[in-house]
Write a structure and sequence with these properties.
The protein is α/β, with parallel strands linked by helices and 313 residues long. It folds into two domains: 4-128, Nucleoside Triphosphate Pyrophosphohydrolase, CATH 3.90.79; 132-310, TIM Barrel. 29% of the residues lie in helices and 28% in strands. The protein has helices spanning 47-59, 121-128, 138-141, 143-155, 170-184, 197-202, 212-216, 234-242, 266-274, 292-297, 307-310; strands at 4-12, 19-23, 34-35, 38-40, 62-75, 80-92, 102-106, 132-135, 160-163, 190-194, 207-210, 226-231, 247-251, 281-284, 302-305. Strands 8-9-10-11-12-13-14-15 form an eight-stranded parallel β-barrel. A four-stranded mixed β-sheet has the order 4-1-6-5, covered by helices on one side. The protein has a three-stranded antiparallel β-sheet with strand order 3-2-7, with no helix packed on it. α9 (266-274) links the parallel β13 (247-251) and β14. α4 (143-155) packs parallel to α5 (170-184). The longest helix is centred in the middle third of the chain and has 15 residues, at 170-184. The chain is elongated, with a radius of gyration of 20 Å. The model has no long low-confidence stretch (mean pLDDT 96). The chain binds 8-OXO-2'-deoxyguanosine-5'-triphosphate. One of its GO terms (molecular function) is hydrolase activity. Residues 2-131 form the Nudix hydrolase domain. This is 8-oxo-dGTP diphosphatase. Keywords: DNA damage, DNA repair, DNA replication, Hydrolase, Magnesium, Metal-binding, Mutator protein. It holds the Pfam family TMP-TENI.
Length: 313
């Protein structure tokens, strides 16, 4: 078995939300394939240091804000690589490429260039996961009010909804989930249904969100495009990763009004728990819009919330 090579790679965002890909030069492995700028971690360097150095050497840019994101391993014919992906949220300098055949700024939802390096498929899927998940609570506020607030949130840019209605009867839930899908679809928003893969498929939702108890008893990944799970511990996060789930939700980070008295993690513990995972993790629990920077600095992909998603103030 070949030695493991540590690699740092950056998702570099431009001002318009597009991200940068580079085409590998002739005379390299996978010449002509597209990759995220980056390179090997040198002895004594942290992956973050390596990325800052590589982006300076390769592209002539200076990183201003770097956020840890996800880590994936891949076995190539030539090497076993561990890829540490970071988001380069802010940078300065003029882009001058020294190593690629071409560069391209790509839209997050549908990158157009190809082929992509084989390890990068799940990375592109993770980039498509929206940064904010709105979790419904129609059981508390009423179906009509929830749908009204959903319309307003979709109009303001919400692109990921979790239908979660623990107290609702089966036929009402089916009708409610179908109504959410009907509203979300024209906006290009994803819908996942909590706890019920059959219902998700029946109403044409994009996926299922498993409870921690369902994750504990899971035997195989449900056959839906998006599958995520609620987690509270590192063991649960690793189990979710082991089934190839697309995302996890981890909390509670801060105290919440909906689950008073529940133990909280805080951002430091959150950052420790999500380090090195291969899938994006959304932070949950008492979070508001203003917490997004803090969440992403701690390694979260974004935020999942009940109240703050429907709050119109
Ligand atoms: N930079 C980068 N490397 C990636 C990505 N995806 C992926 O599988 N890799 C792999 C390809 C390479 O095996 C390794 C990156 O190493 P590298 O670019 O420094 O070096 P290389 O293999 O081209 O060759 P060399 O430096 O030994 O000449 O990580 C990605 O998105 N960006």
């Amino acid at each position: 078995m070949s030695k493991r090579v540590e690699v740092a790679a950056g998702v570099i965002f431009g001002g318009d939300g597009r991200f940068l890909l580079g085409q590998r030069a002739p005379d390299t492995f996978y010449a002509g394939y597209w990759e995220f700028p980056g390179g090997k971690v040198e002895p004594g360097e942290s992956p973050a240091d390596a990325l800052v150095r590589e982006l300076d050497e390769e592209l002539g840019i200076r990183v201003r804000v770097l956020r840890p994101w996800i880590t994936r391993e891949h076995l190539y014919e030539h090497a076993h690589v561990r890829l540490h992906f970071f988001e380069v949220a802010d940078w300065e300098g003029e882009l001058r490429d020294h190593v690629h055949s071409a560069l391209s700024w790509e839209p997050v939802d549908a990158p157009e260039v190809g082929p992509m390096l084989p390890a990068n498929g799940p990375i592109l899927k993770a980039l498509r996961l929206p940064r904010w998940m709105g979790i419904t609570h129609a059981t508390d506020i009423g179906v009509a009010r929830q749908l009204e607030l959903l319309d307003a949130a979709l109009a303001s840019g919400l692109r990921l909804v979790q239908v979660r209605e623990p107290g609702m009867g089966a036929s009402d839930l089916c009708a409610f989930a179908a109504a959410v899908v009907k509203r979300a679809r024209p906006r290009g928003a994803l819908v996942v249904v909590n706890g019920n893969a059959e219902l998700a498929a029946e109403v044409g939702a994009d996926g299922v969100h498993l409870s921690a108890a369902q994750l504990a008893g899971l035997e195989a990944r449900p056959a839906l495009e998006w599958v995520g799970a609620s987690c509270h511990t590192r063991a649960e996060l690793e189990r979710a990763a082991g089934f190839g789930l697309d995302y996890a939700v981890l909390g509670a980070v801060l105290p919440t009004a909906t689950h008073p008295g529940q133990p909280t993690l805080g951002w430091e513990r959150f950052a420790e728990l999500v380090g090195g995972l291969p899938m994006p993790v959304l932070a949950l629990g008492g979070l508001r819009r203003a917490d997004m920077e803090r969440a992403r600095a701690a390694g979260a992909h974004g935020i999942a919330a009940i109240r703050a998603s429907w709050d119109q103030s």
